[in-house]
Write a structure and sequence with these properties.
Number of domains: 2
CATH topology of the largest domain: Glutaconate Coenzyme A-transferase
Strand content: 15-25%
Strand order of the largest sheet: 8-16-14-12-11-17-22-25-26
Helix content: 25-40%
Oligomer: single chain
Number of strands: 26
Distance between the termini: 68 Å
Amino acid sequence: MKPIKFVTADEAVSHIPSGSHVHLSSVASVPHCLIAALCRRADAGDVRGLCFHHFHTEGPAPYSEPRYEGIFFDQGFFVGPNVRANVNAGYADYLPVHLRESQALYRSGCIKLGAALVNISRPDKEGRVSLGTSVDCSVAAIETADVVIGVMNPHVPFSHGDLVSLDQFDYLVEDDTPLVTAGFAEPTPTEVLIGKNCAALVDDGDCIQMGIGALPNALAGQLGSHKNLGLHTEMFADGLLRLIKAGVINGACKKIDTGKVVASFLLGSQEVYSFIDDNPAVLMKDIKYTNDPWVIAQNPHMKSINSAVEVDLTGQVVADSIGQRIFSGTGGQLDFVRGATMSEGGKSIIAFASRTAKGKGKIVPCINPGAGVVTPRADAHWVVTEYGAVDLYGRSLQERAKLLIGIAHPDDREALDRAAFERFGPHYHHFSL
C-alpha cells in the first residue's frame, strides 16, 4: 500500500470547479468538514453554482439555505427534516427517484458529477477502505466523479461488503467528528397494536425488510419469539439489532447471502455502528444490489413492511408528500414492494396508524391534491392499521373500499362509506364481500 498523503479540507475542496454537481455521502455519515470548507469558499466569493445530491442527511445543511442562493442548490434524492422547509420554500429541491436507481443517475451520465465527497474508514492491509454506515449510491459516485475526496474518520466503522480502493481517491482529509446517532424511538400503544398485526403476517424463516422509527421498533418488539428470520433491507437500526443479537435474525433460511445481514445505510445508536465494525456477518452494499427487486425476490418468503402518509379507497399509497408539500421521498418503498411480491411466498405490507397525531384520517376517499402516489394501487397488497390487516390483491375497487373502511378509524368509517357510495353508485351498498 502506498503512503497516504493528507491535505486540509480547504485544499481538497479548492479543486471543485464552480458549476459542479456534487455528491455527499449521507444519513449518519455526512462529510461535514468538507461542507464547512465549501461554505468558507462561498463566503469568500470563490465558488458558485454547486448542485448537491444525496440521500437524507443528518446535521446542518447549509447547502440548502437561502443565504447561499445562487451559490449552492440542493437536489436531494430524499428529503429529511434538515432541508424540508427550504425544499418547500423553493430554496432547495427534490429529485424524485427510486433509491435503487439513484446510482444509475451517476453511472449512466444523466448526472455528471464534478465531485464526490464521502466519509471513509481507515484502510485495511490491502489499501481498501469502507464507506461504513452509508454505502448508498456513493460507490457509483466514486466511480464516476471527476474529483473524489475521502474524509478518513476513525469513527467510520470498517463494514464488510462493497469496499473501495484508496487509489480511487484524488484527495484525502483527516477528521474525527463522531457520526450522528439516533436514539431508540419508543412505540406508542397504537404502534404496538400495528406491530402485532404486522407480526401475525410474518412466519418463522421469513426474510424481512423494514426501516427505522417507532413503528418498525414496535414490529421488532413483536418478533422476539420468531425463529430463523433473515434480513435484507436498505437500512436498519436498534430495534432490529436487538433481534440480531438475540439470534431471532440469523439468516439461516436465506437463499442468497445466507447467514448474512444485508443493508445499504444505517442510522442508530453507537451500538449499531460498533456492531457492524469488522463484522463479516453484516454486508453493507451498493443500493443497486440491496434495492434491486430481482435480488430481493431471490429470498423466498420476503416480507417488506413500509409506511404511508395516506391511502385512498382504491389502494393508492402516498408516502412522500402531504398534498403539494414534499415530506420525504419515494425512497425504496416500491423497490421492496415489488421485490417482496415477486418472492415465492412473499408479502408486501403497508402499515400505518389510522389517524395522524392531529386526528386526521389516513384512509381517505381521495388523495390530497398534489400528493404523490409512491405505490400504485395495482402494486398494493397487504394494508395494516391498529384495527386489522387486509389483502387488496385480486380485489376490485369496490371490494378494496369495503376492506379498507373496515380497518379505518371507527369514527371515520361512516364518512368513508358515504364517499364510497357516492363514487360507486347505489349498487355499492348491495355488494358484499
